[in-house]
């Protein structure tokens, strides 16, 4: 699947979500599969390396870090090669189920400065995702 097609699918999902207000947790996880299928080969990672990120298994490997960055980029929370807190909050408001929003926003607020410690977007994404998981594993969702 080429990147134009994937971008189109993500935008269609975004519009659908916007019109329907939010997704269930399962719909959120299912939509992440598109990003996962696109980002895995781009970053030469296996299911074994990235399949348990949502459960707290963060392998400290450059390709895994860049996979996480790819997912964040496709989620439109990376602006000018940096994680953008306001974009994260906007995506949470649009995509996440109402019962998860406050918890995910709290994790994002807690971790918003983690990425600033790193010049590299892959490292910034990895450590931010890990921070968000550590802050609230129950409400952490990642493809």
TrEMBL record:
Statement: the UniProt record of this protein carries the keyword Zinc: no
InterPro entries named in the record: PBP/GOBP, PBP_GOBP_sf
Swiss-Prot/TrEMBL keywords: Membrane, Secreted, Transmembrane, Transmembrane helix
Any GO CC annotation of this UniProt entry: extracellular region
Gene Ontology molecular function: any one: dibutyl phthalate binding
Subcellular location: Secreted
Entry similarity comment: Belongs to the PBP/GOBP family.
UniProt name for this protein: General odorant-binding protein 72-like
Organism: Papilio xuthus
Protein encoded by which gene: LOC106121780
